[in-house]
Design goal:
This protein has about 220 residues and is mainly alpha-helical. The protein is built from nine helices and no strands. The protein has one domain: Mitochondrial carrier domain (Mitochondrial carrier fold, Alpha/alpha barrel), CATH 1.50.40.10. Helix content is about 75%, strand content about 0%. The longest helix is centred in the first third of the chain and has 35 residues. Keywords: Membrane, Repeat, Transmembrane, Transmembrane helix, Transport.
Length: about 220
């Protein structure tokens, strides 16, 4: 008896893939991202401003006019928080918050990608999707999911950082996007991506390894 092979179109294959996506992974990533952004955004703002002051003192980026208008430097984290609150109010502490909320998608994409890659890998091996993997396999999926999420969402971090920098003046997120595109092109939205990945990759791999060890009870 002659066997007949059935043809599956790319559209049908993609549809089948997304039918198996567990959207609770996406919801979990979004929820965690919103919570962390609300709590940690002021600290992110301070980090950017400290970095801006260092650039200013080293004369790497800013003109003499901006040096004259910068005012006194912050003496520490508490001084920075109190000064920003006193001079700019709560809105000052959450400058760049809107693009930061777009960044919630980063955690969501990363977490969902990580989980779906594990599930697809186990399905490929014809084993239950909750089968434990080796440490090397977990590290590979963690690093890959981080690369995918970063390549998709990194531009928001550039926009947020520039809005938070007290030495740059933008009318808002759209104005920052327009100026970045006008003067730097698409490469401007990915400035600092490589150092960022070097910084976060070991951290995220460690986080996922600990996560797997605790959730698997091993």
């Amino acid at each position: 008896m002659t066997s007949v092979k059935t043809f599956t179109s790319p559209t049908a294959a993609a549809k089948s893939l997304f039918q198996h996506v567990k959207y609770e992974h996406l919801v979990a990533g979004v929820t965690g991202g919103v919570a962390s952004t609300l709590i940690l955004h002021p600290l992110d703002l301070i980090k950017i401003r400290f970095a801006g002051e260092l650039k200013l003192m080293l004369c790497l980026q800013y003109s003499d006019a901006s040096c004259a208008n910068r005012g006194r430097a912050y003496t520490g984290m508490v001084d920075a928080l109190s000064s920003i609150y006193r001079l700019e109010g709560v809105r000052g502490l959450y400058r760049g918050f809107v693009p930061g909320m777009f960044g919630v998608s980063h955690g969501a994409i990363q977490f969902m990608t990580y989980e779906e890659m594990k599930n697809s890998y186990n399905q490929y091996r014809n084993v239950p999707i909750d089968t434990k993997l080796s440490t090397v396999e977990y590290l590979g999926f963690a690093a890959t999911s981080k690369l995918i999420a970063a390549s998709v969402t990194y531009p928001y971090q550039v926009i947020r950082a520039r809005l938070q920098d007290q030495f740059h003046s933008y009318e808002g997120s759209l104005d920052c996007i327009r100026q970045t595109w006008r003067y730097e092109g698409s490469r401007g939205f990915y400035k600092g991506l490589f150092p960022y990945l070097l910084h976060v990759m070991p951290n995220i791999c460690l986080v996922f390894i600990i996560y797997e060890k605790f959730t698997n009870g091993s």
